[in-house]
Amino acid sequence: MIPSQYYSFSGIVVTLYFFFLASCVLQILASPTPHYCRNDQRDALLEFKQEFPGRNMNSSSYNDMSSWNKKSDCCYWGAVVCDAKSGQVISLDLSKVALNNSLKPNSGLFKLLYLQRLYLLNCNLYGEIPSSFGNLSHLMELDLSINNLDGQVPSSIANLTQLRYLRLLENNLSGKFSVSLANLTNLVQLEIGNNYFEPELLPDMSRFHNLAIFWGGNFFGPFPTSLFTIPSLQWVDLGENNFTGPISFGNMSLSSSRLMFLSLEDNKLDGPIPKSMSKFLNLEQLDLRNNSFSGPFPTFLLTIPSLTIVNLAQNHFKGPIDFEKTSSSSSLGVLNIADNKFDGQIPESISKFHKLGELDVSNNKLEGNVPGCLLSLASLKLSHNSFTSVGKSSSQVSEQAEMRELRLDSNSFRGPFPYWICEMRSLEFLDMSNNSFSGSIPPCFRDITKFLEVLNLRNNNFSGNLPDVFVSATKLILLDVSRNRLVGKLPKSLINCIAMEFLNVEGNKFKDKFPSWLSSLLSLKVLILRSNQFYHPHVSVGFQRLKVIDVSHNDLTGTFPDFYFSDWFGMCQTTTLLNLENDVIYMEYLIDMNNYEAFVMNSRTYSSSMEMVYKGVDTKFEKIRKDFRAIDFSRNRFYGNIPESIGLLKGLRFLNLSSNAFTSNIPHSLANLTNLEALDVSHNQLSGQIPQDLGELSFLSTMNFAHNNLEGPIPRGTQFQRQNCSSFMDNPKLYGLDDDICRKTHVPNPAPQKSEEEQMISWIALAIAYGPGVFCGLVIGHIFISHKHEWFMERFRRNNPRVVIRSAR
Ligand SMILES: *[C@@H]1O[C@H](CO)[C@@H](O)[C@H](O)[C@H]1NC(C)=O
Ligand SMILES: *[C@@H]1O[C@H](CO)[C@@H](O)[C@H](O)[C@H]1NC(C)=O
Ligand SMILES: *[C@@H]1O[C@H](CO)[C@@H](O)[C@H](O)[C@H]1NC(C)=O
Ligand SMILES: *[C@@H]1O[C@H](CO)[C@@H](O)[C@H](O)[C@H]1NC(C)=O
Ligand SMILES: *[C@@H]1O[C@H](CO)[C@@H](O)[C@H](O)[C@H]1NC(C)=O
Ligand SMILES: *[C@@H]1O[C@H](CO)[C@@H](O)[C@H](O)[C@H]1NC(C)=O
Ligand SMILES: *[C@@H]1O[C@H](CO)[C@@H](O)[C@H](O)[C@H]1NC(C)=O
Ligand SMILES: *[C@@H]1O[C@H](CO)[C@@H](O)[C@H](O)[C@H]1NC(C)=O
Ligand SMILES: *[C@@H]1O[C@H](CO)[C@@H](O)[C@H](O)[C@H]1NC(C)=O
Ligand SMILES: *[C@@H]1O[C@H](CO)[C@@H](O)[C@H](O)[C@H]1NC(C)=O
Ligand SMILES: *[C@@H]1O[C@H](CO)[C@@H](O)[C@H](O)[C@H]1NC(C)=O
Ligand SMILES: *[C@@H]1O[C@H](CO)[C@@H](O)[C@H](O)[C@H]1NC(C)=O
């Protein structure tokens, strides 16, 4: 699945030969001759067309093959360009036409012997690259990117010595690549990233005298110093390779280098950044993220006047941040130094970067006051440090504050709600969680809710009411005010949050009727009201999309009608049908005890968390789960029947009804919950037998029937027989476990125990993602790549006016 955003960028290709443009223009202007298509070329093209019976006829691409027929001149067919004099086909561009087949070794394509440019970018091609490509010896440009081609790159490619431009990105190619490279020393652009090539040493690249763009492969070994001796080099992406050791540029003179983009992310490079790097005077983007670089803050890098984006995240840099020697004419716009060991304060001198728009210093050991000038950024991430305050006063925030993302979470902020936040009218993302903010949440908060998508105030010391400030909060997706000391009722203006998917008010002192009115929020998927003082019955219809509800530890009471769950469609589904449900936001549940609150870099992905407290649940859930459905009604005062309609919630994996006063039988319909993994009905007054069919629920590994009036045989299923007898204790008439001790342990009054006494295990962290392109890491990668490319192509065109850049669209 490649997102559509990607198509539009990756189709951009570079043509380095001005005469091509000239010749195309000449053809169009000067040669209206109706019949100059050569028959052999026409037949070869028609033969080629025949090879793709499964191609998508509905392709919107203008250069689809539908115009290819014997009646017209093949030089006027879509996607085809002929040489004006000879009538030979010299260019074929079928980018984005879903050909949906493999390329045959004897394909008509290989009869087009005069082809100079061939674009089969994103054509849904699979199978191997035929060695017959070696016949197309006039090829200067070949683009087979974004297909499912596999196998080795044929060594016959080495025959294509005219090749200037070779793109094989995003396929499933394997084997060693560099053999095919041997004689392609005229290459200007070589892009082979995102394949499955065998790890190999990067060959000496210095013979590629014209190389400007080099992307990827699967190379290892020491830092490829020789690559940087190529004077034409401008764009290098060696991310996700396996280079080790320090960066070194020998005694090279770098100041004449044209290098604009350098990515070495996700390698194993170490040592300090050499000072000589500051001589790359044209460098605009530098990505060194996720290596083992060490040493002090490389302040010298920031003296490169053109440098715009710098990413040093996930390394071992340490010591203070220092901007002393940098100049105020710097172009720096984005600085990411997250996940290092920087300490001390952010110096006030950061104010000299007038163009700085984004700063990420998360996960360091920074402390003290955050310079107020940073409040003018578009994105400021301070998470997981020891900052205590921001700015000097609210006067630092100007009217034109355009901050969209502010992360203050897990620091040492304390004191009242910072009023300057109310000035940030463009905020989309605000995370103040896990600090010691206190006092009330001010009514001025209303001013910043218009664009807000995520608001996380979890784990602070806020008190008073949650003010009625959500009237304009129509974009709010996630609201987490859990673990504060909020009182009173839930504000009715929450009814305006039509985009809300995740609401967590757990661990406060809200005292309100059960908010059944929330059922009109049709996007709501996760509702956590746990550990408050909600009261009254909550009989209502609705909650159609709900996937997780936790109302445990409240004062709710009442009975459930039998049909109660019949319209809880969100829990009926057994899988997450992302597309069908238009499920843009709700991503996945991350069941990982150690990753309680995870932040995913480089995307607008955000993880908040919830916990469900459950007795005896297996702690080994570590997988990411996309299809988690849960109901926790425990520790209330519900009574009467467990409704039969519970059996309709086919997706349910977790059901906790314990510590209530249910009196019915255990409904037989539970046996229909084939995904159920954990069931707790303990501490009720249930009677009758445990339905024997429950023994067939193969995922049901954790269960608790203790402290009821159940009778008869325990089901024979292996999952049941594997249970500890404490799961059945205090049901005097229950029998069938090997161990009789259970039955004999008689606790007369099944009074709920205090939570500290139980072996409670917090086991769920919920990952909620927001924004586009967050469905899987792969997609995030694609988008990131495409942006890099777009950015580069724009610069490349500007600096190379003779270069023709065309879009394959
Ligand atoms: C590709 O062709 C196969 C049959 O060869 C067909 O089942 C499949 O739906 C086609 N895919 C597309 C995207 O057209
Ligand atoms: C093409 O589009 C038509 C209507 O838009 C549709 O009925 C047909 O199934 C489509 N064919 C393919 C191969 O996608
Ligand atoms: C193409 O190259 C292959 C070898 O790779 C050769 O066997 C074949 O004859 C060539 N075809 C043409 C049309 O030249
Ligand atoms: C290499 O190209 C020549 C024509 O220039 C052709 O005769 C030969 O078959 C090609 N070799 C391969 C391996 O394709
Ligand atoms: C890619 O190739 C590998 C073997 O090299 C194979 O195991 C894998 O299934 C292929 N993946 C796809 C998506 O074709
Ligand atoms: C590279 O070119 C040289 C000389 O043109 C030739 O001898 C050699 O066989 C070529 N290597 C490959 C792998 O084609
Ligand atoms: C990198 O190299 C190490 C050691 O040689 C190897 O274990 C690891 O699999 C390699 N990783 C990649 C992504 O090639
Ligand atoms: C760099 O050092 C090498 C030997 O290590 C030498 O051959 C070369 O001439 C030096 N280049 C410059 C520009 O000093
Ligand atoms: C960091 O790089 C390693 C390979 O060196 C990779 O396995 C890992 O996933 C990367 N981490 C992140 C967060 O991208
Ligand atoms: C909360 O912040 C403290 C330090 O302020 C940190 O130790 C702790 O890990 C944070 N908790 C979470 C859940 O991030
Ligand atoms: C929370 O605020 C109250 C006063 O409002 C104070 O007594 C208490 O110490 C604060 N707790 C924390 C953890 O800051
Ligand atoms: C289980 O579901 C089926 C339909 O899927 C239904 O016919 C059956 O009555 C249900 N069983 C119980 C016990 O509810």
UniProtKB/TrEMBL annotation:
Residues 39-83 form the Leucine-rich repeat-containing N-terminal plant-type domain. Keywords: Glycoprotein, Leucine-rich repeat, Membrane, Receptor, Repeat, Transmembrane, Transmembrane helix. It is a single-pass type I membrane protein. The keyword Transport does not apply. InterPro entries: Leu-rich_rpt (IPR001611), Leu-rich_rpt_typical-subtyp (IPR003591), LRR_dom_sf (IPR032675), LRR_N_plant-typ (IPR013210), RLP_Defense_Trigger (IPR051502). It is found in: Cell membrane. It comes from the Eukaryota. Its main location: membrane. Gene3D superfamilies: Ribonuclease Inhibitor. The chain crosses the membrane at residues 7-30, 760-785. Belongs to the RLP family. PANTHER family: LEUCINE-RICH REPEAT-CONTAINING N-TERMINAL PLANT-TYPE DOMAIN-CONTAINING PROTEIN, RECEPTOR-LIKE PROTEIN 14. This is Receptor like protein 30-like. The lineage of its organism: Eukaryota, Viridiplantae, Streptophyta, Embryophyta, Tracheophyta.
